[in-house]
Amino acid sequence: MHTRARKLERKATWITILVALQALAAAFFIADLAADIMAEGIGAHLLIEALAAFALLAAVVLGALQVRGLIASARRDETAIAAAKGALAELVYLRFEEWALPLPRPMWRCLPSRAATSPKSLRCAAQQPAQSEPSWLGSMPKPGWIHRQA
Amino acid sequence: MNATAPSTRRRWDPVVKITHWSIAIAVLANAVFTEEGSGLHIWVGYGLAAILGLRMLWGLIGPIEARFGAFWPSPRKAMAHLGEIRTGQSSQHISHNPLGAFMVYAIWGCLLTIIATGIAMAGVPPIGLADNDTEQRGATELERSDEYSEERDEDGEEEEGLPGEAHETAANLLYLLILLHLAGVLFETRRSGRQVLVAMLPLQR
Q: Fewest CB atoms less than 10 Å from the CB: which of A23, B85, B187, B205?
């Protein structure tokens, strides 16, 4: 999904380059049209040229709207990933709480703080001694300590 | 949830980045590399106008941080921002900071003045394409453009009139604003971190 957000952003960049080129072409055609009208006055040929120039302008606007849509999609994906990461972290915290285990040190950096969601339950878990804590975990801090620091 | 709401980290979208760098290249080209009043100078100016037009459109329909409303110039906010700088505080801005907003509108104002006065002086750009009539007209336009350049060289600045004066004054003001803009970016990067600078880099996500 993260890759999808990147793909969408890359696509938005390429379409933006195309839209910028269209804007340049539109400026060229409109300037040409203005010069022709000043030289010859309005005729059927110039009316068609004018239609083409305004179609190009409309393409610039539509292209810009498409780029906006792609950017919005990419950002939605990023938000969804962030939410999913948050949910996974929540699950890991819950499991450690259930098993009355302290959170291993390397995981502090990997998981987002849960203090903002429900610090109370973690503090409670920290106050109660672990039922069957392995000896190798004895020296490690309790989850409640982690979140008071966070 | 607003789908176009940006993250707290400042990050410019591809339209803002591409228009920013295209305008920078066009200004540099016309300031340094093209001859004043030449066909190429005029065409680069028209290209700049097209890209600036795209940025103006994006200011109306783009994501929230790119819209005009996100960085409307406000003296009150600018004073508050100066206060923050004095006290060493730093707050996050998803769009331009209040002082940066003034700079953006000042630069756009200069660019629009330069474009309008440029068109007033040079008229439609020289075009030499397609059929014989157009070729002939293109050649005439190019001659006219060359004559204009020569006249300028011979008679000096006074022949240009008000549009010429305004064009040159706005261009000089633009160079000053660009220097201030660069100084502001460096200062803000030192104060708030490299994200300010990185956010506008072309290949940075």
A: B205
